[in-house]
Amino acid sequence: MPTTDSGTPAAAVAVYAISVAAELSGLSIQALRLYERRGLLTPERTGGRTRRYSDADVARLRRIGELLLAGLNLAGIERVLALESDNDDLRAENATLAARLRRLRADTVRLASDNVALRASVAREAGAAS
C-alpha cells in the first residue's frame, strides 16, 4: 500500500472538502453529514473544524451508496459495514496465523532433522565407548 513521507497510508490522507467527496461518491452533501451523525464514517477535521475526506472515506461512501441502491436502510448499512470490517480483521489475523504456522512447520522439520543428527551422534559415541 502506498504511503506518504510520514508513513501514513496514502488512502488515509484526508484531502477532499465535503463538496468534492460528495461529487466523487455520487451522494449529496446532506447525506454525508447524515452518515457522519449516524457514525457510518468519521472524516478528519481541520483546525477550523472543516471536514476533510480521504480516499478511504470516499470508498466507504461509495460502498454506502451501493448498499442504499441494494435497498438497505441505514441500520442495515451500519451492520453490513461492521461485518465487513470484522471480516477484514479476521482475514488479516488468518494471514498472520498462516504465516506463523508455516514458520512452526519449518521449525519442526529443522528440529526433527537436528534430532536425527543428535541421535546418530549419540549412537556413534556409545559405539566408540564400548
UniProtKB/TrEMBL annotation:
Chloroplast recorded as keyword: no
Domain of life: Bacteria
Name the UniProt record assigns to this protein: MerR family transcriptional regulator
PANTHER family: HTH-TYPE TRANSCRIPTIONAL REGULATOR YFMP, REDOX-CYCLING DRUG-SENSING TRANSCRIPTIONAL ACTIVATOR SOXR
UniProt keyword list: Coiled coil, DNA-binding, Membrane, Transmembrane, Transmembrane helix
MF terms (GO), sorted A to Z: DNA binding; DNA-binding transcription factor activity
Domain HTH merR-type: 15-83
SUPFAM superfamilies tied to this protein: Putative DNA-binding domain
UniProt source species: Nakamurella flava
Coiled coil: 80-107
Transmembrane regions: 12-35
Keyword 4Fe-4S: no
